């Protein structure tokens, strides 16, 4: 087991009706003025935003609002939020929504707390020295951003999707009422479940040994999400299934399932980010579309790891050699994706990739030849192209 640090400062308030505590939680932060940041009209139509406003009013917390966050959140709205925060002297940001809203809030927080262009952080040109404090009212179980240190933003100039991680942006609190996720469309629920699983799988596929505790946590989390995802496909109002998935989403991306590892692979995420930037696909769906092709491309570099995943997570009976077991595990995961009506190829998402687009995706993913990705097997631009080609379908 590798040395590690585990830091999870977020206060979690979990359960039915917990959104009514939002004003009190914000007041505990000692702030003077809040930016309420949200996405589409769903939080308005459901009445959630009005309940949040009433809770803030009850706590005598002044606020301004900025909506309009979309999946794969845009840098242009981040700039708008930064300007609004500075104009209104905002000193706390409340994200009401899912991962896209939270990621956008974190980016606004970075921009408002630091001089210069916030995009520099996402391009790794410099390091943030702070972030406005963030609070979350979670409405989608998926990204785990409510307890993670990460944020992913899409720059419309070139449609580049980039991530930045810093402990400065970890949420001070996360209000998590599973009931708020019950109105999600089936596709969005399924995509969220894949996203949760992939955050754990990215860490699980690593080059380390002797991680019995961490591996056990990861394997059980994955089996739990799979079980409850299938329940939600037919029973979307099942509170217990919603609760299990929501809590798994936070645990999958708060660092717990990476303790003692080398950090994990993350190549599937990097490959999907470029698909999201180019085609605006749902993140979980994009991950499902590329994962099998990535797994087949790299599994020979870590057959025992893939075989362990096949047996302990997917319930595959061991074959005579690890490679055969690994292949059956990959096939079993793809079959699970199909039960959720998730894609297992890019074509399954209605996208017909051209040769030029595959090359462009690989160039962007490699930062135009400046980086490799992955740890199971280091992938260069040509490797990335080959995986996109295999995933094309």
Integer tally of domains: 2
CATH architecture of the largest domain: Up-down Bundle
Q: Judging from the principal axes of the Cα atoms, what is the shape?
A: globular
Radius of gyration: 20 Å
Pfam families: ADH_Fe_C, Fe-ADH
InterPro entries: ADH_Fe/GldA, ADH_Fe_C, ADH_Fe_CS, BDH-like
GO molecular function: alcohol dehydrogenase (NADP+) activity; butanol dehydrogenase (NAD+) activity; metal ion binding; methylglyoxal reductase (NADPH) (acetol producing) activity
Keywords: Oxidoreductase
Strand and helix layout:
Layout: E1 11-14, H1 22-27, E2 34-38, H2 42-45, H3 48-58, E3 63-66, H4 75-88, E4 92-97, H5 99-113, H6 119-122, E5 134-138, E6 150-155, E7 160-165, E8 173-176, H7 186-204, H8 212-234, H9 239-252, H10 267-279, H11 283-298, H12 303-312, H13 322-339, H14 355-365, H15 381-391
Parallel strand pairs: 1-8, 2-3, 2-4, 4-5, 5-8
Antiparallel strand pairs: 6-7
Helix pairs in contact: 4-5, 7-8, 7-9, 7-11, 8-9, 10-11, 10-14, 11-13, 11-15, 12-13, 14-15
